[in-house]
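Entry:
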Amino acid sequence: MNIFEKIIKGEIPCKKIHENEKFLSFYDIAPKAPVHALIITKASIKDFNELDGETMKDMTKFIHEVVDILGVKESGYRLVTNTGKDSGQEVPHFHFHLLGKKPLSGNFA
């Protein structure tokens, strides 16, 4: 069981931003920007290669809700997903990093 699955089950606490029956968003414990949120699926999906269109459609709506909650829509934000070891994916569970509230350049997630 990976760390995100333990967070979903409530075995590890998180600083929750938003949640529904399919997705969870919470603050990253090692932020790379003033706002650094993780947005994860509750379903066991390893990475983007396993993602289906219907889940992505629902996740897009959820991400828009998180963007509104965090207040980064006007100033801008970066949305990143890593897929596989060469990309730097550390947790084998599909997720996005949402970074904002500062000018971003280079690699942050």
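Helices lie at 3-8, 53-70.
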